[in-house]
Design a protein that fits this description.
Elements: H1 27-39, E1 46-47, H2 49-56, H3 63-82, E2 91-92, H4 93-102, H5 112-126, H6 150-162, H7 164-170, E3 171-173, E4 179-181, E5 190-192, H8 197-202, H9 212-224, H10 239-247, E6 251-255, H11 270-280, E7 285-289, E8 304-311, E9 316-320, E10 343-347, H12 348-354, E11 355-361
Antiparallel strand pairs: 1-2, 3-4, 4-5, 6-11, 7-8, 7-11, 8-9, 9-10
């Protein structure tokens, strides 16, 4: 079972806010119009999704141009999702104008294009260019971007959280400047080019902690795409597969009952017993939400979360959202733990109501 691409962090309804771009009006649109002919690789008057993939992978597109390109990527995805299209339609020069003005945040009036530009410019500015920062890979620094990779990132956080050296040792720099990535559970390494500026702006990031998470995400996506590196950031992931790849062990997926049998205080509900034992043995557990009928918008539908703890005495489950933010809110509209870092704890009742499946390492 694959996790839905609805778990992409810039989903059709924009919730995050950003300050207005302090530049001339229509700056983002003017930049995209300026670069249009360069991005139209076959010069037929439109930018296809295939051309977008090739542009995103172009290391010569850097700095401000890469942020403008990332913004168009976000708009094309946003537009296709809003219109219910499986394929992203090509964009003509005139269509740039419509994409810029058609989508906004209904609560703030902020244009989606300006939001994306601010977001990607900020990510690129904060992201380190070195593979690793001054310390070992920090799972808490890793945050999901535009790729539908929550299943992979949830399993990766569980690995890096326990043994950061495993992630560091998985990546080897080659003489030609590319990276070779060896996941412990895969038979052969995967070679990928270093992340481009556009890829670092769009996809997963660990900020100043380094580009390691983007490299891992790219390598895993290439593996999922059958070796097609241009499609590496478009692949959904079954968490069970990612657990096997990281642990070189076995894994199993089970359902979570929405209405579990009665259990006493201090007891573990039947749906959580095997996950509880797995965590007690220091093994990886990933849960993902229902695709509909969640109790509130605080839960991302069809989205994978790392299970970090199950607490029978408190009757609760601890989880981490791979976005690195967005978690259940209290009556005051703030995170229950007062810190929006993606780490949160919910009751057994809330877990059963909102989560559908559990994948766990079994050996």
């Amino acid at each position: 079972m694959r996790i839905s691409s609805r778990s992409i962090s810039h989903a059709p309804i924009l919730k995050a806010s950003a300050q207005n771009i302090s530049r001339v009006e229509d700056f983002v649109l003017k930049q995209q119009q300026h670069y249009f002919d360069d991005w139209d690789l076959n010069h037929n008057g439109q930018i296809s999704w295939s051309e977008m993939r090739r542009n995103v992978a172009d290391s010569q597109i850097q700095g401000e141009e890469s942020v403008s390109l990332a913004t168009l990527y976000g708009l094309m995805e946003h537009d296709a999702a809003y219109r219910g299209l499986q394929r992203k339609p090509p964009v003509t020069y005139n269509r740039l104008y419509d994409l810029y003005y058609d989508y906004d945040n209904p609560d703030t009036g902020e244009l989606a294009a300006d939001y994306f530009y601010q977001k990607y410019a900020g990510k690129l500015e904060e992201a380190g260019k070195e593979l690793f920062g001054e310390s070992l890979p920090d799972g808490y620094a890793a945050k999901q971007g535009a790729a539908p990779s929550c299943g992979f990132l949830a399993a990766t956080f569980a690995t890096v959280w326990k043994e950061p050296a495993v992630a560091k040792n998985a990546i080897v720099l080659q003489e030609d400047g590319d990276y070779e990535v060896q996941f412990p559970g895969l038979p052969r390494p995967i070679e990928v080019a270093p992340p481009t500026d556009t890829e670092r702006a769009l996809f997963s990031t660990a900020g100043e902690n380094g580009t390691w998470i983007t490299v891992l995400e790219k390598a895993w996506g290439k593996h999922q795409a059958g070796g097609d590196e241009l499609r590496a950031f478009e692949m959904d992931t079954n968490p069970e597969d990612a657990i096997r790849a990281w642990t070189n062990g076995s894994a199993k997926t089970t359902r979570v009952a929405k209405n579990p049998k009665e259990y006493k205080k201090g007891e573990i509900p039947f749906s959580l017993k095997t996950a509880y034992r797995a965590l007690a043995e220091d093994r990886t557990v990933v849960a993902w939400t229902r695709f509909e009928d969640v109790s509130s918008d605080d839960y991302v539908v069809g989205h994978a979360y790392t299970v970090t703890g199950i607490h029978p005495e408190e009757g609760s489950v601890s989880l981490r959202n791979p976005w690195g933010h967005q978690e259940p809110l209290g009556d005051d509209g703030k995170p229950l733990d007062k810190k929006d870092d993606g780490l949160f704890e919910i009751s057994f009742q809330q877990f059963h109501k909102n989560f559908k499946m559990l994948a766990r390492q079994t050996g």
